[in-house]
Specification:
This protein has helices at about 1-25, 75-85, 105-145, 150-180; strands at about 40-45, 45-50, 55-60, 65-70, 90, 95-100. With about 180 residues, it is of the alpha+beta class. The protein has a four-stranded antiparallel β-sheet, covered by helices on one side. The chain has a two-stranded antiparallel sheet with strand order 1-2. The radius of gyration is 22 Å and the shape is elongated. It starts with a helix and ends with a helix.
Length: about 180
Amino acid sequence: MENVKKKLVAGMEKTVEALKKDFGRVRTGRASASLLENIMVDYYGTPTPINQVGTLAVPEPRMITIQPWEKKIIGEIEKAILKSDLGLNPDSDGQIIRVVIPPLTEERRREMTKMTKKMGEESKVALRNLRRDANEKLKKMEKDKELTKDDLKRGEKEIQDLTDSYVKKIDEIVAAKDKEIMEI
């Protein structure tokens, strides 16, 4: 039974970490290098992550700078940022690319909070699937006479308590992200 709980906790931790990572890419009006993480630059014909063609930095709360390792690819980096669905306009001086993060409109903020709630809900579904799998393993163990009925009931309660605590964590993460998005 302990093995089942360990696997469940590991899976739930991964789910929470994945949500946090996904939230790092959600635009809030504040600059974050992770905002550009998924942008692929055409580097000599090969799609390459932006952080592998230059150094990303956040010198100011609303600005990201990209220092390309080769000046020849400045145009490709700018094109990749413009093609992304982030709505950002890069500006280059031939040496460094500056991306100013404009403040979000009220309407866009509301769209973003809807998106974060949806992402949170998807994470909760993943948690519930993990719970179901763990409960099925316990029932199989009871059927195979590895657990008593009492142990099964106790295990199911512990699994439910774990699930509830991780659902609460996800709700807190979503609430914090929504608060960050709604800040002006």
